[in-house]
Amino acid sequence: RFQPKPEDRFTFGLWTVGNPGRDPFGEPVRTPWSPVEIANVLAEVGAYGVNFHDNDLVPIDASFEEKRKIVSDFRRALEETGLKVPMATVDLFRNPVFKDGAFTSNDPEVRAYAIRKTIEAIELGVELGAEIFVLWGGREGTEVDASKDPVTALKRHREAINYLCDYVLDRGYRLKFALEAKPNEPRSDLYLPTTGAMLGYIDTLDHPEMVGVNPEVAHERMAGLNVYHAVAQALERGKLLHIDLNDQQIGRFDQDLRFGSADIKGAFFLVKLLEDYQYQGPRHFDAHAYRTEDLEGVKDFAKGCMRTYLILKEKVKRFNEDREIQDLLKKINAGREVAGFEFRYSPEAHRSLMDYEFSREKMAEKSMYYERLDQLTMEILLGVR
Ligand code: GCO
Ligand code: MN
Ligand code: MN
Ligand code: MN
């Protein structure tokens, strides 16, 4: 029970389970694993796939020969373990060259280099089977607003994404881009700070059909938003290509906690959304183990993410099959139709609307039962239902 299976499509990044526990106040506490070692651990704990930034796999200064060796070793590990690479991404934040942004840098040479580095990362991802390419603008932002015109920054960002889409089309790759928003960290303010902002922006691109979003639980919560609602908006537009599952307490630094470990109710509704709407993409855990953990603890962390998801999936089934809850929902959703009216303008429908006699008092009298509904939801989560 609660054993991960390939069809659950659980994935982790090399940078997540491979996180050595460095933070702004302290050195690493774990010896870094090689990509092959990480793949083996992921296979052992039952993950379906592994994702990576270009430089999680191939160091930025690797020679051509070094790169070929690393890639072929990694490919062999994938074949031996059966792990897939559904997603790849690019690191446009770690190297000092990107200290003031990549696609939005004021320096055209840096912007060009960012595009070139992304294209090489796309090649690497495609070579290993990726069909989704995540773009997270780690340093696309500012501390000093006087330094950069935010209107210009957006135009530069758009130029870069349009370039990348044209490149992928030109090469005939089956690859889609998933844009990941974050409000802050590592910059004071990042451009396109929320999934909602990303969704509005995507429609301004040359090829919106090639671009969707990768919402992250922690990032929406850092912005004080409801992840469930943000993900729903993406889902409703067919734009949910990927998802970064983790957890976060509001008002804290970017914590990347084990999925479900901070807000179990929020996690429940997110799982409910993904399951009820049969989300087909990878369920990626962008989180890492506490800095206190050793290698065994890292495995506990990874298993915990998947197990919590599967437990919540079972809770969703219970919720959906619970007679009392479903009867309440029926009542909650009931209401009187306005004769002759439709929620689409026509002169006839409009006449019915204007002729109808509304009773505000009657409408406002309706019982909502939300206390009862919420308590029943909590009792499912608390395991007494
Ligand atoms: C973060 C981000 C990253 C991205 C990753 C993929 O807060 O550090 O969530 O983990 O998801 O870089 O592009
Ligand atoms: Mn994050
Ligand atoms: Mn993070
Ligand atoms: Mn992320």
Kindly list the characteristics that best describe this protein.
globular, 385 residues, two-stranded antiparallel ribbon, 15 helices, binds manganese (II) ion, binds D-gluconic acid, alpha/beta, 47% helix, eight-stranded parallel sheet
Describe, in plain words, how this protein is organized in 3D.
The protein is globular and about 75 Å long. The chain has helices at 14-17, 35-45, 54-57, 64-81, 108-127, 150-171, 195-202, 217-222, 227-236, 264-276, 295-321, 323-333, 347-355, 360-364, 370-381; strands spanning 10-13, 49-53, 87-89, 132-136, 141-142, 176-180, 189-190, 211-213, 243-245, 283-285. It contains 15 helices and 10 strands. Helix 2 (35-45) runs parallel beside helix 4 and helix 9 (227-236) packs parallel to helix 10. With 385 residues, it is α/β, with parallel strands linked by helices. The strands form 2 sheets. An 8-stranded parallel sheet has the order 8-6-4-3-2-1-10-9. Residues 254, 256 line the site of one manganese (II) ion (MN).
Gist of the model:
This protein has 385 residues and is α/β, with parallel strands linked by helices.
Number of strands: 10
Helix content: 40-55%
C-alpha Rg (nearest Å):
23 Å
Q: Main sheet: which strands, in order across? A: 8-6-4-3-2-1-10-9
- How much of the polypeptide forms β-strand, as a percent range? 5-15%
Shape, per Cα inertia axes: globular
Mean of pLDDT? 98
Distance between the termini: 18 Å
Backbone structural class: alpha/beta
**Distinct small molecules bound, one entry per kind:** D-gluconic acid, manganese (II) ion
Number of helices: 15
Helices and strands, in order, run as EHHEHHEHEEHEEHEHHEHEHHHHH
